[in-house]
Amino acid sequence: MRLLAIALTVTLFSTYSRAEVRLPGIIGDHMVLQQKSDARLWGWTEAGKTVAVKCSWNNKTVSARSDSKGAWEVRVKTPAAGGPYEITIDDGKRITLKDVLIGEVWLCSGQSNMEMPLKGFEYGQYVEGAQDYIANANPERPIRMAQLKLDYSPTPKEDCEVRWVTNSAEFLPDISACAVFFGDYMQSALNIPIGLIITDWGASTIETWMNRESIMRVLPNTDFSILEDPDNYKNSPQQTPTLLFNAMVYPLRKYTVKGMIWYQGESNIPNYQDYADLQDSLITLWRETFDNPDMPFCFTQIAPFEYPYLNKRAAYLREQQSISLKRIKNASMAVTIDIGEKSVIHPRNKQEVSKRLAWGALALGYGRQIEYQSPEYVSHEVDGGRIIIHVSNAEQGLHTNLNEGEYIPGFEVAGEDKHFYPAQAALIHKPEEAIAVSSPEVPRPIAVRYCFKDYQPGFLFNSYGLPLAPFRSDNWDDAQGPVFWW
Asked: N or C, which terminus of the chain has less Cβ within 10 Å?
């Protein structure tokens, strides 16, 4: 027994003597820290040990003592954008983080349209402009990306698998195209380093990016028993409530970020009725999680696509996204009704999507005086056999990219029978901007819709090229067909 005790003591001493500080995956070489903030750095070491952190931008050292579980955390004041810098972390054995930049950090999340990498998806689903961007990639350009590895968990996790990479052709093909083009636009506009933390999973529902409390605010009768046995969700974790929030958001909570871009919604088309409330609850949760109550939230309205058997449910989901926009403070919505594709759910024009997201980010996050919201339906009035539509965000009028005199598709009108017919549209510029729509099939119209279908491209824009958002003036629920489409 005495020999066993001595051996155990020697083993423990050797283990502790080799122990050194461990950092979470999101903290490492090439990372970008949010400028002018009290950024948190944290990790694990032996219990009760002092950890000293020194940053080269001010050569000041801050220290913390690890708790009973070995966890430690410090806050460092970051300067205005710049770099590269080094950070040394020392608990008796020193770690040096190199090539650290100070700039603006944005979260990028959602499902497959956010996940779609620059190299595209198989079966001809490519990204426009990807080859040019990769060919001209400059690793010295101050854009850094951290794309999380897919993971899920029924309980919150403290760490995730991720590493920061440079703007290099070596890494770019596998990075989210939407995030890359967003970062490219933001870096050009702000001329400072940009950090992108990318956490996404194709076919994911909004509920999987939320915790129990935020879901129950909207759906109080939610049954979470599926989480009790991994066999229940191992084949579809990205469509199981809370799993991705626990594994791919919660571990990031201490990292200081500026704002968030979000591209999700297709997987919630079957239960579209709750989407506005769920998105409201999600952004409340994420703002609380990252301790940023005014965090800009820039999201994408799902694009047109001819979903099998859905019959307008996608239109209702878009409507829910528009409703959410009106209720969430400090938010923007990138309308994509003009760039969808009939037979491909992943539009190839990610550059335009990202540019519209960036316009919202620049306006909300940095006070840029630019137009970033699409024209939206405000009201209508019946004028004999016509309906006159009034819209917002079109002070200089609307225009179409069709040939002069060409029919403007997408408008429909209905009478008392609630049956919609295609309508002719005419742009009115005086005495104010408006749209007049009519149909010989409906002599006494009472309701109007625009692009209110699963797939119906839009062709009307304001003077800044932002498309008129799809809308309806009625409140009739005529969604039909089977609930599920995959």
From this structure: N
Residues 303 and 411 in one domain: no
Q: Are residues 168 and 258 in the same domain?
A: yes
Nearest to 45 by CA among 76, 77, 10, 15: 15
Question: Can you tell me whether residue 428 is helix, strand or coil?
Answer: strand
Residue 348: C-alpha distances to residues 178, 336, 359 (Å): 10, 12, 20
Domain limits for position 81: 16-102
Element (H, E) at 14: helix 2-18
- Residues 45, 21: Cα–Cα separation, whole Å: 5
| Same domain as 108, residue 94 | no
Q: Specify if 38 maps to a domain.
A: yes
Q: Are 374 and 461 in contact (CB under 8 A)?
A: no
What is the value of pTM for the model shown?
A: 0.94
Q: Under 8 Å CB-to-CB from 166, ≥6 apart: which residues?
A: 30, 139, 140, 143, 144
Question: What is the total count of domains within the chain?
Answer: 3
Tokens read off for 163: 């590493």
Q: How far is CA 255 from CA 24, 106, 194, in A?
A: 10, 11, 15
Whether 8 is covered by a domain: the verdict is no
d(CA 414, CA 123): 40
Do 409 and 415 touch, CB atoms closer than 8 A? no
Please indicate, yes or no, whether residues 327 and 460 belong to a single structural domain of this protein: no
Pair 169, 254 in one domain: yes
Average pLDDT of the residues in 199-210? 98
Write the pLDDT tens digit of every residue in 416-464. Answer: 999 999 999 999 988 788 999 999 999 999 999 999 999 999 999 999 9
Q: In Å, what is the CA distance from 96 to each residue of 87, 138, 197, 277?
A: 6, 25, 22, 45
